[in-house]
Amino acid sequence: MKDNNDEMFPIVDENGNITGAATRGECHSGKKLLHPVVHLHVFNSEGELYLQKRPEWKDIQPGKWDTAVGGHVDLGECIDDALKREAEEELGLKDFNAEQISSYIFESEREKELIFAFKTITDTEITPSDELDGGRFWSIADIKQNIGKGVFTPNFENEIKRTNLI
């Protein structure tokens, strides 16, 4: 399995207004084309945070632990629909109420994303898809203990600090 580099993403300005379109390959090539992404932080009623493990075949941050749900907004898709689609695709999560906690720009050496971050609390069974290399709930103490040790994606570490999520 591998990412589809021909998948089309909207290109946006800093306010999320669509200014064009480009392929995944172009967006992740170092051209820094700003494209929208959704993140969903999933807590259980015990206050633990679910994290997904990125598979080794991913083109960005393979093998690292990351936000429960993270995905690109497809061309022609709204943020809410992308969030619901990604949550169902990645975790089998269908019925949830999400609260937006932030939107911000994240930039790495290879890409530039306009991230729309949400959180939810659920005790629904989570069934990670084959898009992921599994996942599990982490205690907040375990997450804090592993920050800065190369366990998590830089984007996840940046987001939890930025949003005061934990």
Assigned CATH class = Alpha Beta
How many domains, in number, for the residues? 1
Oligomeric state: single chain
Assigned CATH superfamily: Nucleoside Triphosphate Pyrophosphohydrolase
Characterize the biggest β-sheet.
Answer: 7 strands, mixed
Helix percent band: 10-25%
Mean pLDDT across every amino acid position: 94
Helix-strand string:
EEHEEEEHEEEHH
Q: What general form does the structure show?
A: globular
CATH T-level topology: Nucleoside Triphosphate Pyrophosphohydrolase
Features:
4 helices; Nucleoside Triphosphate Pyrophosphohydrolase; 9 strands; seven-stranded mixed beta sheet; alpha+beta; 166 residues; two-stranded antiparallel ribbon
Helix and strand arrangement:
Layout: E1 8-12, E2 18-23, H1 24-27, E3 34-43, E4 49-53, E5 65-67, E6 69-72, H2 79-91, E7 99-107, E8 112-121, E9 135-138, H3 140-146, H4 154-163
Parallel strand pairs: 3-8
Antiparallel strand pairs: 1-2, 3-4, 3-6, 4-5, 4-9, 7-8
What does this structure look like?
There is one protein chain. The strands form 2 sheets. Strands 3, 4, 5, 6, 7, 8 and 9 form a 7-stranded mixed β-sheet that branches. A two-stranded antiparallel ribbon has the order 1-2. The chain has a single domain, classed as Nucleoside Triphosphate Pyrophosphohydrolase. The chain has 4 helices and 9 strands, in the order E-E-H-E-E-E-E-H-E-E-E-H-H. The protein has 166 residues and is α+β, with helices and mostly antiparallel strands. The model has no long low-confidence stretch (mean pLDDT 94). A hairpin with a 4-residue loop joins strand 7 and strand 8.
